User: What shape does this take?
Amino acid sequence: MSQSNLKSTISDDSAAVESNKVNTIHISKPLGHTTITAVLCGVVGGLLGIILDLLHRFDGIREGLLETYMAEPFLMSDPFTWSPVWGWVAAIVLATGVAYVVLDSVGKWRRVFIGLAVIILLISFSPLLMLWNVFWVPCVMLIAVLWAWLCAFFYTTQHVMPCELGISYRSKGGFQKLRDLTRRKPKSSNTSSSEEINPVDQQPDA
Assistant: This one.
């Protein structure tokens, strides 16, 4: 390799290192995990709802709601109910799913919308099932989903989620991509190789 080509290669490597330094955004937040965190949030939320149900914390709500449905204008008679175990399993599964969607979504308002939408749908399902003479109280599922959603939401505020990688962020120089999450310095392999090659430039031509 001639001396001119060698100098051109060194300058290109140096420019690449400097460009990496400029385009890299250093974030102090750690990288979050989606699947494991979602399972933990969902299981804990489901267990919280199940424990409250076993402590009969929702009995008053059930009795009041049943009296409301059996009175006018609903006039529900001989309602059908299923085993609470199925409700417990559904609560854990739904809470885990909501937590996963929240963790895998970009933007705070989108995460807030997901939680509010699921809570509104759960509340509306009780009177909807009443039309088919099915009595269902969503207390366990509401507690599980609400707890899992809150845990997942606050987790996203303390971590950078994998779904956020590659998203452009506004900076003074325009839009830059998120590349470095742990304040690591750019690799010095190029600079070290340049330092090793630099002495060649000082050698006299043959």
